[in-house]
């Protein structure tokens, strides 16, 4: 398995969405939706969004510009809007992982969820803010036009044939949207082949002349699949009769498809398997001369007898161990529920949790782990490639969301209940010369139709009366009222003329650790 160098917020978020994310629930088992499948809709939107790419000038590609292109005939279909609605409702957009990354992730889940191969996933796409060119192929266009459109997208003729087969193994053509193609009024969605699965039935039925693909056997002008599939005398289609070849070819082409992005965009290395070890970003609280640090380590395929120890070095970076200790065994371990992507790889994992008490004077400069399999073998040291997981005093212990002082508050009256997150921010500095502010990121768009774009709002931070200054820290507080919808915070503190910032603090994850307060009136 591959190793992960912390910190890398984009890569760890991508791993998390791929192996533990909520998208799994919508894709696992290839669920049906209105005579097609959710997966078919997700795969089609990924292709249509990518279709704006132009290899000649490096513009366009999978950039979520589809959100601004839905009024075009080439993008008709309820599946487009439904897919974007799915992605918006998941609430997984972050300041660094936008709709384009989610459309690409949707394609990966779509394929594997319907029994297809794992398409290695990379993140880092950039969302467009305007429409791209109208370059999605349409069924009534001739072969020459299609060859040229695929060339512009970066695919040669053989690749075009295979990519269309890989796409049209899922779903079909909707009569309401294409009444001139689907003329049989008893059919809502005319599926391309007889199986909803991601398999090569589309190929075998075409070669056996038993295909029901309406873009092969339908009205002459719109037989685009026939023109494409037969364009090389069926040589490519013959090769795809081997299900291994079909699977490998589709995985490679679909990976290229979702990685087709403007030339200015840099994607992460592909994630083909979960990282062997990933940590939960450490969270802190300060009280009575001690820091509490909460973190966790996910271990893929741990030994059943394994025990995991957290160790840390003090502020000076040496091994001076205060009487309060500098190592700790995990307080609990939980099996990780892997998504279908991890399950088909036959992998399991556990997450080992830690809540360390750290003397605030000697403090902490880095931490690492030891995994002891308790079988006589040497412990495995997980130290982030040798450097340890480094905690910089500034900003990590100068400005942080204090997770024990923050609160999840449920206010209940006889007629309503209201949930509020009280965020408490600790700043190393005296109250007289310190100010703080934060902005909150909400992934959910209130729009009823695309484009769905996230919003940010400013939330003022005031001196917290209930948490008076202590140990050099001043505490500020602000309320997040739209509970559950704010997922990330950017926080700034000014101490005298020095400015500290914490960007992309994951409030969604951290608030799981906030004390829960119920107020009934
Ligand atoms: C010349 C190229 C292509 C043409 C003309 C074409 C045309 C179409 C049309 C007209 C539909 C029906 C859409 C609807 O009724 O909602 C469709 C569906 C679909 N297409 Fe294509 N397509 C092409 C290439 C591709 C490629 C390369 C992929 C992906 C790799 C793809 C994936 C899909 C999928 C998954 C569906 C089913 C959608 C659903 O059931 O909701 N298509 N295509």
How is this structure best described in words?
This is Peroxidase. InterPro entries: Ccp1-like, Haem_peroxidase, Haem_peroxidase_sf. Belongs to the peroxidase family. Pfam families: peroxidase (PF00141). Helix content is 24%, strand content 26%. With 521 residues, the protein is of the alpha+beta class. Helix 3 crosses helix 5 (99-113) and helix 4 (78-90) packs across helix 5 (99-113). The model has no long low-confidence stretch (mean pLDDT 96). The structure holds protoporphyrin IX containing FE.
List keywords for this structure.
521 residues; alpha+beta; 6-stranded mixed sheet; binds protoporphyrin IX containing FE; peroxidase activity
Short description:
The chain has 521 residues and is α+β, with helices and mostly antiparallel strands. Helix content is 24%, strand content 26%.
Bound molecules: protoporphyrin IX containing FE
SSE-based structural type: alpha+beta
Largest sheet: 6 strands, mixed
Determine the N-to-C terminus distance. Answer: 54 Å
DSSP summary, beta strand count: 23
Question: How would you state the average pLDDT, rounded?
Answer: 96
Gyration radius over CA: 26 Å
Count of helical segments?
14
Strand content: 25-35%
Q: How would you describe the shape?
A: elongated
Low-confidence stretches: none
Helicity level: 10-25%
